[in-house]
Design a protein that fits this description.
By secondary structure, this protein is mainly alpha-helical. 78% of the residues lie in helices and 0% in strands. It has one domain. It has 2 helices and no strands.
């Protein structure tokens, strides 16, 4: 059986993703604060930004969990097939 280890991301990749996240949130927040509109519109835009960030994290976690679940089921099925094949004697 092939052993697949956990995927490891490089430190540079992790830094880049967090930097891009922080930059995008801060630039969007600055843009909303500097909009030439009433405060209630800015509040609405800020709430929309907050909910979009939260739902993005939730969606990413859900997709990751689904992927890991499929991998686990595939590994269990593979182990069952290997056990059956190891028990089968072709010379009987």
């Amino acid at each position: 059986m092939n052993q697949v280890g956990p995927q490891k991301d490089s430190a540079a990749w992790i830094f880049q993703t967090w930097a891009a996240f922080a930059l995008s949130i801060s630039m969007t927040t600055i843009g909303v604060v500097n909009l030439p509109v009433d405060n209630w519109v800015k509040g609405y835009m800020g709430m929309g930004l907050g909910f979009s960030i939260g739902s993005s994290f939730t969606l990413a976690k859900t997709m990751r969990d689904m992927h890991e679940s499929r991998r686990m089921v595939a590994r269990i099925d593979e182990a069952k097939v290997e056990k059956l094949l190891s028990q089968h004697d072709t010379f009987k």
